[in-house]
């Protein structure tokens, strides 16, 4: 085994080269000397900046040989390939469900533990996912990022916009299996009102 004479004073991790130790120390110091000239986002490693720049340029040099989909990094391509091979090596110890990525497994585990580690700084409400917290924060900030292209009405969630757009298009994708009537939403309240109407209508005709 190669010698690793350069040890980190804070965590004890050792490296073969002093330059590698210097890069590692940024984990502890928070130093991010590599800054994007487009959006000013900063990175601890130059490799991180290189990958980030591709989000601006659109460069995706790592292509999937099976479907042609391209990615900004080889690691992203490796994750994608599992969708073709079906490999799911991250298993939940509680229920056995398998996942493509360790991050997906970590998110799933919160279902079993009930862990809600994402806290709203405004009201203290807790959430199991960062994305749920981000959506909730719009209650406080008033942000409505999903805007209708036809009337410019805006919504806090994409689902709200999807329902609204159907007012313009007339689309009613959900059908009643009793009479064939269509609805904009699959929400139970819409169907409850409809079934109540059918029940009252049938009762009136029986008299």
Question: Would you write up a description of this structure?
Answer:
This is C2H2-type domain-containing protein. Keywords: DNA-binding, Metal-binding, Nucleus, Repeat, Transcription, Transcription regulation, Zinc, Zinc-finger. Its main location: nucleus. It is found in: Nucleus. InterPro entries: Znf_C2H2_sf (IPR036236), Znf_C2H2_type (IPR013087). The chain is an alpha+beta fold and 207 residues long. Among the domains are: 52 residues, Classic Zinc Finger (Double Stranded RNA Binding Domain), CATH 3.30.160.60; 51 residues, Double Stranded RNA Binding Domain (2-Layer Sandwich); 31 residues, no CATH class. It has seven helices and 14 strands. The protein has a two-stranded antiparallel sheet with strand order 1-2. The longest helix is centred in the C-terminal third of the chain and has 19 residues. The N and C termini lie far apart (91 Å). The model has no long low-confidence stretch (mean pLDDT 86).
Number of strands: 14
Q: What portion of the residues fall into strands of 2 or more residues?
A: 5-15%
Summed up, the helix count is 7
Rg for CA atoms = 26 Å
The main pleated sheet reads as: 2 strands, antiparallel
Gap between N and C termini: 91 Å
Main-sheet strand order equals 1-2
The outline comes out as elongated
Pfam families: zf-C2H2
Main location: nucleus
GO molecular function: DNA-binding transcription factor activity, RNA polymerase II-specific; identical protein binding; RNA polymerase II cis-regulatory region sequence-specific DNA binding; zinc ion binding
Protein name: C2H2-type domain-containing protein
């Amino acid at each position: 085994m190669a010698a690793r004479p350069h040890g980190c004073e804070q965590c004890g991790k050792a490296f073969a080269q002093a330059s590698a130790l210097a890069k590692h120390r940024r984990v502890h110091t928070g130093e991010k000397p590599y800054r994007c000239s487009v959006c000013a986002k900063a990175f601890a490693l130059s490799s991180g900046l290189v990958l980030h720049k591709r989000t601006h340029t659109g460069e995706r040099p790592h292509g999937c040989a099976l479907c042609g989909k391209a990615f900004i990094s080889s690691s992203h391509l490796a994750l994608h390939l599992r969708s073709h091979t079906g490999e799911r090596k991250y298993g939940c110890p509680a229920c056995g469900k398998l996942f493509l990525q360790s991050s997906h497994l970590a998110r799933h585990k919160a279902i079993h533990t009930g862990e809600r580690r994402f806290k709203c700084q405004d009201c203290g409400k807790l959430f199991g996912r960062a994305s749920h917290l981000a959506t909730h924060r719009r209650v406080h900030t008033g942000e409505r990022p999903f805007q209708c292209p036809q009337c410019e009405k805006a919504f806090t969630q994409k689902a709200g916009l999807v329902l609204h757009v159907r007012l313009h298009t007339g689309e009613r994708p959900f059908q009643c299996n009793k009479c064939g009537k269509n609805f904009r939403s699959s929400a139970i309240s819409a169907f409850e009102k409809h079934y109540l109407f059918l029940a009252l209508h049938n009762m009136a005709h029986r008299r």
